[in-house]
Amino acid sequence: MADAAIRTTCPYCGVGCGLIVSPTRDGWAVGGDPDHPANRGRLCSKGATLMDTVTAEDTGPVRLLHPMVDGRRTGWGEAVNAVADRLAAVVAEHGPDAVGFYVSGQLLTEDYYAVNKLAKGFIGTPHVDTNSRLCMASTVAGHKRAFGADVVPGTYEDLELADLVVLVGSNLAWCHPVLAQRLRAARRDRGTKVVVVDPRRTATCDFADLHIALPPGQDVALFNGLLAHLDRVDAIDREYVLRHVSGLDEALAAARADTPPDVEGVELFYHWVATTPKTVTVFSQGVNQSSRGTDKVNAILNVHLATGRVGLPGATPFSVTGQPNAMGGREVGGLANQLAAHMNPDDPHDVDRLRRFWRAPNLTGGQGLKAVELFEAVRAGRIKALWIMATNPAVSLPEGDLVRAALAACPTVIVSDMVTDTDTQRFAHIRLPAAGWGEKDGTVTNSERRISRQRPFRAPAGEAKPDWWIVTQVARAMGFETAFRYRAPVDLFREHAALSAFENDGLRAFDIGGLANLKPRAYDALAPVQWPVPAGTSAGTARLYGDGRYTHANGRGRMIAVRQEAPAERASLRFPLVANTGRYRDQWHTMTRTGLSPRLAAHRPEPLVEMHPEDAAAAGLADGALARVTSRRGEVVMRVAIGEAQRPGEVFLPMHWSDTLSARGSIGRLVPGHVDSVSGQPESKHVPVRVEPL
Ligand code: SF4
């Protein structure tokens, strides 16, 4: 399809690296885009091996090539009608609330926009949630409480401008490798101090000046202790707080009531933060994936608000997202507690505004079911039809056995995916072949709010189609032709941009009205740009809130009084170890793409339960032995890797393997469905287990 080099974006992590894909005699070659601000030509192992996976897709039975209805190959016309008819029948018999959508941060913004418009605006169900719930929901909630909007105030360059970078619950070296490369270079060139706060000694600790091996779940105590320390040494910026921040007294009172963790390095950490104005705190899933995740986020944000270190060069809190388009999905209302353009489903003005913009009489507002609740509703029979796009919840969600039972019991399961066989697809009544990376055309937004283009360089495999096209066809078949007249992704993008500016008047931070009139050629050539991009502008905005004006109606940032609380489940005599779950450097999610690359598999060919020598000895386990890992929910089988990276009493489990790839290797069956009461994000980082010889 492409006979010249094209610029596009990596489909993996939230760094959002720019790529150049060039035609070769045999296919294509991929390299880092030196002009993309996120990576400036750098790549990690996953990005550099993207063509391995494309080749494997072409040469093996990997792709879903044709629509399938009830196990039978069909054309698109029949498949689209089957989806439309079954959704309409459920709405007619049980009401719109009986329809659910579970989508993905792998979708492009244009795909995501179409899904939300169809589901919330025209079918009239609020039940649209996404795998971003497992990733970023606590940060979204924390940002909204503190700033009044789901906004990351900083830009990647801040990691290079800071004198101190604190990484909390983030194995940046493995999970955001190009950002880690940038930080390492800054440390080498200008002596940036790096602190890692993590129960494990991860690869990121290799370039840290200080590792605080914090026991799991004690982040609030750590940051409350820091806030109280800042007060004691007079490092709170009282003038800034007076002018720009509410809630200091209450937050300080709560902070003083907590006891800082008794862990080596804490006092030095507090001293460094107090004496280093240019401090950036990077936080990620180790903070978010917790039954207290939102409070943890706010404990971090409190420190930055109290010191006025928000949205300034080299001084800001910085959440790094896991997925390539977790932020783009939020922009279009991809969470059950959001509407498009960051509007609030509980605000009648926002609901009315969106209803009028979309001319969508079925839009009712109100919050939908969040991921764990959604699958509980499927299992209970309240959701009768579920459409899953670009994600594999049978492997990735907590309560894996219950999720599988829910899918087995659901009368209509529709799955759109690019690959032909996932644990989730086995439950599908209708399977729709979706175009994949290299075939799709649209935009994604990375962790620094930067919108970048994904451009196609080859034709879709078989009869695969882009997700926005599939949704549009179904919408038309359901009778919503007028609202779904899109012919190309640019049509969706322009509408999305226009909506962001519609009756905005500074109410919402997300505003890309300056991109609402892009002609197709300008959209195609769109250079990476950070939102907001208000009407009349095009350059984007690197930082937000640096002037102390926040999105809350009174313009002030808000400190939240939070207290240290225990995780939802504790270790016990039967389950004496605490399992922490996470990524490997060279795998991505449930391995449907990275699992195709032998080069990537060489890093860690199989899942390993990593444990401290004392715990392994107590359990009678040798390095390399097969072990059964059991929680209160289920069990998995893995080989043991003994090492001192784990603290005694804790083990680490990789999240990637499905039962298809490794018999009983899917750790979702171990993780309980405890969620943060504010964000709905599950607690995947604190799972009591026992490990014993098989
Ligand atoms: Fe892709 Fe992330 Fe690696 Fe960049 S750091 S190449 S976005 S996986």
UniProtKB/TrEMBL annotation:
<dbReference type="GO" id="GO:0046872">
    <property type="term" value="F:metal ion binding"/>
</dbReference>
<dbReference type="GO" id="GO:0045333">
    <property type="term" value="P:cellular respiration"/>
</dbReference>
<keyword id="KW-0560">Oxidoreductase</keyword>
<dbReference type="GO" id="GO:1990204">
    <property type="term" value="C:oxidoreductase complex"/>
</dbReference>
<dbReference type="GO" id="GO:0016020">
    <property type="term" value="C:membrane"/>
</dbReference>
<feature type="domain" description="4Fe-4S Mo/W bis-MGD-type">
    <location>
        <begin position="3"/>
        <end position="58"/>
    </location>
</feature>
<keyword id="KW-0408">Iron</keyword>
<keyword id="KW-0534">Nitrate assimilation</keyword>
<protein>
    <submittedName>
        <fullName>Assimilatory nitrate reductase (NADH) alpha subunit apoprotein</fullName>
    </submittedName>
</protein>
<dbReference type="GO" id="GO:0016491">
    <property type="term" value="F:oxidoreductase activity"/>
</dbReference>
<keyword id="KW-0500">Molybdenum</keyword>
<dbReference type="GO" id="GO:0043546">
    <property type="term" value="F:molybdopterin cofactor binding"/>
</dbReference>
<dbReference type="GO" id="GO:0051539">
    <property type="term" value="F:4 iron, 4 sulfur cluster binding"/>
</dbReference>
<keyword id="KW-0004">4Fe-4S</keyword>
<keyword id="KW-0411">Iron-sulfur</keyword>
<comment type="similarity">
    <text>Belongs to the prokaryotic molybdopterin-containing oxidoreductase family. NasA/NapA/NarB subfamily.</text>
</comment>
<dbReference type="GO" id="GO:0042128">
    <property type="term" value="P:nitrate assimilation"/>
</dbReference>
<keyword id="KW-0479">Metal-binding</keyword>
